[in-house]
Write a structure and sequence with these properties.
Length: 367
């Protein structure tokens, strides 16, 4: 497989060129104008940030991308799917409120926010991919129905995947709540009986008649013959009683398959912001000291190459003083140092194997 171009700018600025102007220049140099945006519904896949976490991307950066698309006749909107876990982004109403609190509103970004999988995470399309783990993928309807997909990714650590970047944002982020369950879990959900209040909301919302509250014990019980693993019980449970099981290696591969589904049959372009490189995901309501200094922004048509380049740039940078791996030793692999139990390479290797892109790249400096 031939090398893919990954275009790079650092954060150095001058009175004649601020960082937003540099970002605009990066987009053009990386070839975003090669995409036909005219009258095309263009999903800009972003993470709006869990309120309390301050490492999320500023909406000012989104405004530059929105403007670049709108000037070419496109119809851009910012989007993300609801979360599987409890938090301020687990349903469409709270998710929109969280986005606004963090500044993602038309007055700032120049476009609307659309929650990709709707109010309860059930608005999705099943996209056929016929891969090892997933024959179809449950992709948030607003993303699946878009004509063009642009990913705007905060590059940082992740407690299960090692790092979160383009592939994580596209795969996990585009999945509906049921899709997220499929990626996170190697089995069907289960009930923590001590937390169950017998409120029956899971029973009422199960489309497959697989959950019932028992008359004897007054707890929810899942019929695994009927259960399809859609994750709706996890989505609607208000008491943390319905939960998922974890399998990191398989999760990474499923993320790649879901990214493949999100990108299927549509032009795409990707931007990684290698800044505020927190050790944990932006899904937490807090962020720790970055593990490396702010490095720059990269753009590419190749989602695999852009993540590989971002990992290499972080690993070639010094350790940030006072962070979780600041133990006065050299860390050639920062993400493995933060999360020794993870293997971030596995996700990239699998994504390359299924044809998402190439790990071989040429870094093109356009400063």
């Amino acid at each position: 497989m031939s090398k893919s171009n990954v275009y790079f700018i650092d954060f150095r600025t001058t009175p004649k060129m601020n960082i937003l102007q540099k970002l605009s220049r990066l987009l053009e140099k990386a070839g975003i104008s090669e995409i036909d945006f005219n009258k095309k519904l263009t999903a800009i896949k972003i993470h709006f940030g869990e309120p309390g976490n301050m490492a999320y991307l500023r909406p000012n950066y989104a405004a530059v991308i929105v403007k670049a698309i709108a000037e070419k006749g496109g119809l851009p909107f910012l989007t993300d799917s609801n979360t599987l876990y409890k938090g301020r982004r687990s349903n469409g109403v709270d998710h929109l409120q969280s986005a606004m609190e963090n500044g993602f509103m038309p007055a700032v970004t120049g476009c609307q926010v659309v929650i990709a999988d709707g109010i309860r995470g059930t608005d999705y399309r099943e996209v056929e991919i016929n891969q090892k783990h997933c024959k179809t993928a449950k992709i948030g309807a607003a993303i699946a129905n878009a004509d063009v997909l642009i990913s705007m990714n905060h590059f940082k650590g992740h407690e299960a995947a090692g790092f979160g970047g383009c592939l994580k944002n596209l795969g996990m982020g585009s999945g509906s709540i049921g899709g997220k369950l499929e990626m996170h879990s190697d089995s069907q959900p289960y009930i923590v009986t001590d937390n169950c209040t017998a409120c029956r909301i899971c029973e009422k919302n199960c489309a497959h008649d697989a959950v019932h509250v028992t008359k004897e014990d007054k707890v929810a019980v899942i019929d695994y013959v009927k259960c399809v693993g859609c994750g709706q019980c996890v989505a609607v449970c208000q008491y943390d009683a319905a939960r998922v099981k974890w399998n990191a290696q398989k999760m990474q591969e499923k993320i790649g398959e879901y990214a493949l589904a999100a990108l299927k049959d549509k032009p795409s372009f990707h931007i990684n912001f290698i800044m505020d490189i927190s050790p944990n995901c932006d899904c937490w309501q807090f962020n720790d000291v970055p593990i490396a200094p702010n490095i720059g922004i990269v753009a590419s048509f190749d989602p695999v190459a852009i993540d590989q380049a971002s990992v290499d740039l972080v690993n070639n940078a010094p350790v940030y003083k006072g962070c979780v791996i600041d133990d006065h030793t050299h860390h050639a692999d920062k993400f493995s140092a933060v999360f020794p139990h993870t293997n971030w390479k596995a996700g990239l290797e699998y994504a390359e194997k299924i044809g998402l892109g190439s790990r071989e790249y040429e870094l093109v400096n356009v400063n």
